[in-house]
Amino acid sequence: MRALFVPLLLLYASGSGRAAGASGAKGTRFVCTAVPAGTDLSCPVDTSSRVQSTSPQEEELRNTIIQLRETILQQKETIVSQQGTIKELNSKLARCEADARSRGSARRKDYSKNTMGDLPRDPTETVQQLGKTMQSLKDRLGNLEQLRANTSGGMFPNELRDLLKRRLTDLESQLLTRVAELEEEKSQLYNETATHRQRTDNTLNSLLERITELENSNNAFKSPEDFKVSLPLRTNYLYGRIKKSLPEMYAFTVCMWLKSSASPGIGTPFSYGVPGQANEIVLIEWGNSPMELLVNDKVAQLPLSVSDGRWHHICITWTTRDGFWEAYQDGERLGTGENLAPWHPIKPGGVIILGQEQDIVGGRFDATQAFVGELSHFNMWDRVLRPIDISAMANCSAYMPGNVVPWVDANVEVFGGATKAALEICEDRLFDS
Ligand SMILES: *[C@@H]1O[C@H](CO)[C@@H](O)[C@H](O)[C@H]1NC(C)=O
Ligand SMILES: *[C@@H]1O[C@H](CO)[C@@H](O)[C@H](O)[C@H]1NC(C)=O
Ligand SMILES: *[C@@H]1O[C@H](CO)[C@@H](O)[C@H](O)[C@H]1NC(C)=O
């Protein structure tokens, strides 16, 4: 019975020693052995050296013990190698986890970055953007209606207005439904959003086209130059565009009638941007600064002041020769200067925008620099006009269309709620002052 008892104890003791080793305590290992009362109490390892003085029973016991120790040592080796395997697996697992985490965050980033071109971005962003587009369309429709209501009736048929209203309402409810859907099933919306977005975009585009068409609808002015462009709000989306571009020029004169009471600063009556130079020619009155002429992004301050809410005629001339300029208001030359972009030829092929300052050619407008008011007879020549020509235009005794940009209805497009309306400046101006 004893022989059986001892191995059990041995197993138990060496097992707990290993466990202690695994949890950090190193080196010492205790092996306990049960022995009969009165026997030699020296360590079992040493017993082999005393074989001579022991009984056969004891010897058998010792042999058993030695065998068992062998077995245990073997097991220990196995366990150690298993520990190695476990460690390796653990580190592999950790690496996998880390990879998975970084992949997860990278994917989240990609999602909001919209790397797929036009197709889905973050759903919330999509919805917000659609919401904004809806709002701006509604604002534009509102403007349009108000402006049409203020001019003589009949230009904006009721059916059309109702149709647009209905379509806006439809779009709005579509949008709301979509928002609800998105809230519900955010996980599988990737493809669906793409299709839906496309559908909504199509509808919005056709609506946009219709509105622009209405804004540009031919009013059949008395003669092609008898109209004005109104830019009633300070926004970054109301503007007019001259369909013609400019040739290369070594001098120019630009004249216009304008009316504004905006403050501080009337904004940007016009800007001409070319690829590589958004500020090729800009007329701007921004914040509390005086009116400025920019040529090739160089600045001259002009002694002009027009923001009293009345019509004023202004002309600016410039020549590349010494960068000499003149500024006229209501037919009078109020200032001259030189060294404004001297010897710079005005670059051809750009875009003339009425009412906005361009940060890139034809776009990226800034609401704070928008012109608020009305413009008419925006004409441009590729030469410096004589003072007598300018005063004759200003006192309405003569009208000369620009030789590079004439003010004609077919040449001027309006966008975003800007409108064209009939105006015979030389008649209407009289009632104004
Ligand atoms: C239309 O007229 C009303 C009142 O006459 C005026 O308050 C409103 O500002 C005008 N709207 C536009 C866009 O000119
Ligand atoms: C998403 O669209 C692509 C191409 O239209 C298709 O191959 C794919 O199966 C779609 N995935 C899901 C989850 O519907
Ligand atoms: C208008 O200006 C022109 C050119 O300066 C001048 O000859 C003419 O007398 C002016 N007419 C009036 C009515 O002031």
Automatic annotation (TrEMBL):
| Top-level taxon in the UniProt lineage | Eukaryota
InterPro entries the record matches: ConA-like_dom_sf, Neuronal_Pentraxin_Related, Pentaxin_CS, PTX_dom
Entry-linked Gene3D superfamilies: 2.60.120.200
User: What are the protein's UniProt keywords?
Assistant: Calcium, Coiled coil, Disulfide bond, Glycoprotein, Metal-binding, Signal
Report the cofactors: Ca(2+)
Residue ranges, annotated region (Disordered): 99-124
For this UniProt entry, the molecular function terms from Gene Ontology, in alphabetical order, are: metal ion binding
Q: Which residues form the signal peptide?
A: 1-19
In this chain the Pentraxin (PTX) domain maps to 225-426
Residues folding into a coiled coil are 58-99, 127-217
Biased-composition ranges, Basic and acidic residues, are: 99-112
Q: What is this protein called?
A: Neuronal pentraxin-2-like
